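Box 4.2: Ligand-aware structure prediction
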Amino acid sequence: MKIIMLGAPGAGKGTQAKQIADKYSIPHISTGDIFRANLKAGTDLGRKAKEYMDQGLLVPDELTCDLVMDRISQDDCKNGFVLDGFPRTIPQAEALDAALSKIGQKMDYAIDVDVPDENIINRMSGRRACLNCGATYHIVSIPTKVEGVCDRCGSPVVLRDDDQPETVKKRLEVYHAQTQPLIDYYKEQDILKSVDGTQPMENVFHAIVEILGA
Ligand code: AP5
């Protein structure tokens, strides 16, 4: 099962993608997590990506596409994968389709987690992320057991640099200009499904499982 998670920054793509990956035993591939892991490891890619991420802009397609194509060609992706944060532009979507079509495959579902902009800024200011293992929390809806400490790996959890309100506003603008057109792109391919991302997380997941099948 090959799934794309669509939605605005903070819509809950990552939260749902992790649960989908667990339930269906497929890898969760988040381009944002890959860039953050590179930044932590001090690679050139991480440094370059940070320049864009800190401004709320997209990392250029030429830095993004090859790394995803390489990741999905690995053995653990044979039975499918869930993409979180990719594609984010029409050229990225076309590159993905072209790479899959070369091996006679195509995406199965594009799931749009729909949340209006006004809900997003609140969510993002409450999000706390573990920069070590990628776990995410929310100070109200999913607090850590010990304040400021990741339940999973014990590292500190922080407000991401790009979750500052001004940067979130820019990310939303970029989302509407560059990523939202993918909704029509996948509608035309007849693989678009939409879920109401303003519902509690477990209800959103239930709606997704109804789409994907138990
Ligand atoms: P990325 O890390 O992908 O960020 P994003 O898409 O902006 O998405 P987020 O991770 O911020 O949010 P999410 O939708 O996963 O929400 P989450 O589940 O955490 O990308 C970061 C940057 O990297 C980009 O800005 C760009 O610069 C670059 N980048 C990445 N991919 C790229 C690409 N393909 N091309 C170019 N550049 C790229 O939830 C958010 C919060 O809400 C959490 O606290 C969560 O607990 C809470 N929450 C979730 N669901 C609910 C719910 N139902 N009710 C209440 N709270 C909820």
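In the box above, the bound molecule is BIS(adenosine)-5'-pentaphosphate. The beta strands are 2-6, 28-30, 81-84, 109-114, 127-130, 136-138, 157-158, 192-196.
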